[in-house]
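JOB MANIFEST
job_type = single_chain_structure
chain_count = 1
residues = 212
[input]
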Amino acid sequence: MIKVISFDLDGTLIDINFDELIWFEEIPKLYAEKYKLPIEKAKEKVFAEYHKEKGNLGWVDIDFWFDKFGLTEADKFLSDLKHNIKLFPEVKKSIFDLSKNYKLIIITRASKKFMDLKLDVENLKDYFSDVFSTVHHFKTLKKDEEIYKKVIKKLDINPEEMAHIGDHLEFDFNIPRKLGINAYYLDREKSKHGDFIVHNLSEFAKKIMEIK
């Protein structure tokens, strides 16, 4: 019997446009202004630095990047742009319906600062009893088997008592299913079909509530 439902955050509950805006548009814009560069040249330099740090914990840490680029007031920067954070349309109803019968949690690779900012949108955090950032809580960018094992142990449940939904085929579907978790792949592009593939969270909620 499923007791806990786990959600990925970005691409599952929150539209990824916010992250793309921050990393690919707004930070390069600040860099261009500070160093008096054309925006395309600034993007070239910023993206090259992103590439160098890929795989390191600092890669998702905005404070790390503001320090590295000589920028200031990261918190104000994020606060000024948080109006761009958007939930997918079906999210609120789906999690509201599921919260009536299940404990809801989040497992995300987002940094704590981004995670907290996003969970404030439409009081999203009110629906979740636990939220795990792999970076903040487990000091890793990976959402691998060990992460799921640690979460299951912390919650004191068996793998089959948890369902997980996310938009990454490997991290949110293949890996948890290997452990016996009832994982579903969220394919919003509708390129795949199958018993454990859904195209929005409304479909997912319906499948979960049909499980005896």
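[summary]
The first helix runs from residue 17 to 35.
The mean pLDDT is 95.
exit_status = 0
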